[in-house]
Amino acid sequence: MTDEQFFATYPDRQARIRRPTMEMQRDQQHAVWAVDECEGQFNQLGAHKRNRRRILLWRVPPGNPWYDPSKPAILKIPFLAFADETIEDTDEVLLPIIHRIMEDARMS
Prior knowledge:
Helix content is 27%, strand content 26%. It has three helices and five strands. A hairpin with a 5-residue loop joins β2 and β3.
């Protein structure tokens, strides 16, 4: 299920967590290969095990300056889970995590 399909199916949800998917990437010579989604962003997070990778998705709500009613935006945030951590896929759990990430990014 794509992210757009998920949020269309669950219109009351504002956030979601999932594992990265594989994406096709092409270089300037038109060679194509498969890489993990957000591979570059995950590499910037330092050394880690690939099985800890998660993608946090946040549907930009109405009233936000980036909200466009003709094409609602979905923000992808690369996230590393702790080795033994299970993160519940609910707005009550995910929205505070996303808020904390946004606040930390704003302060740096």
